[in-house]
């Protein structure tokens, strides 16, 4: 009986460690995604600014 309990405790401990590792991995991926999202937002802002500048130049040539 004690052997069964010890085995169950050991298995539960291993599962808890695996869950902890998986949560840590998820955190790393989430942080990476957040960082990439910030880069994409900055790039989008830059593209918007360039498009507005290009539009202004085109209007000068048209008008």
Describe the structure.
- This protein is mainly alpha-helical and 63 residues long.
- Helix content is 97%, strand content 0%.
- The chain contains one helix and no strands.
- It has one helix at residues 2-62.
- The chain is rod-shaped and about 90 Å long.
- The N and C termini lie far apart (91 Å).
- The model has no long low-confidence stretch (mean pLDDT 96).
What low-confidence regions span 5 or more consecutive residues with pLDDT below 50?
A: none
- In terms of DSSP E residues, the strand content is under 5%
The number of strands is 0
Find the structural class using helix and strand composition: mainly alpha
Helix content: over 70%
| Helix and strand pattern | H
Calculate the mean pLDDT score and round it: 96
The major pleated sheet works out as: none
Radius of gyration: 27 Å
Q: Classify the oligomer.
A: single chain
First-residue to last-residue Cα separation: 91 Å
Shape: rod-shaped
Number of helices: 1
